[in-house]
Amino acid sequence: MGTITRHQAPEDADVPAPPEVPPPGPEFGWESAGLDLDAYLERVGHTGPVRADLATLRALVRAQAESLPFENLDVLLRGDVSLEIGALQDKLVRRRRGGYCHELNGLLATVLDRIGFTVTALSARMLFGADAATLRPVGHTLLRVDVPGGGAWIVDTGVGGWGPPAPLPLRNGAQVRAGDWLYRLDRTPRGWLVRLLRHDGWFNVHLFTLEPYYRPDMADFSYIAAHHPRSPFTRMVSVQRNGASERAVLTDRRLETHRPDRAPEVRTLAPEDVPGVLRGVFGLHLPPEDEEALVRFTARAPEGQEVD
Question: Organism's domain of life (predicted)?
């Protein structure tokens, strides 16, 4: 592999919920006919029932969040990713890789659609702990999943270390415990706010609306994420793994271990240690030429660099 180029670059509100927004029909276009469901279930380690009910939804969200890491390595190594179901299955299932939000939630949406759920893509503004009034760009993909007879739920396995590894009921003030982590969903004047309780208080994850977000929108935002010189995914290694009690976050050579009741533990890796951490901590086994390219890339990374 060649050289990787580094680019430079609220308060709770008592607001009534909006009128119910019906999910789109079959025209949404998930490629579920091309899905190898058995291979996906083996990849995430799900051996229980598979039906369109809340128990299956919870089990699959937890299994995917724990099995498929968030990672941007193909953006750095190859400059692009594909959201076609064949490419997603080859990368995330067959080659046992991870991906970023458009890939991870796109694959999960296809799985859930195949099983019989009604799945609608939504878009969000990532806050990374900022106040909900902060104007961040739209660009994150998440999912609304309607369970037959069980209401509407928010599903998001594409935030890496901060995303909820459990569905959130689409209800103002709802709180859900996922492993040792507590999440909250609040309706604010600007949209729905997902929050995570950390050792230092509530952390604002992202802000979304219920306007449907279609596959061409996902493709456009994925292209921006993979090509814009100010995108964090074109500037640094970003790999995260979401666990029930512990989350791991790798940003170039900075490895953080997060738990809900304490400040994160931080290590600065030597460049040559990065491939071993990718294998041992995140379960990512890359070809030797890709590992060598990442060693060269992280050797030029500023120490302590963080995604903002």
Answer: Bacteria
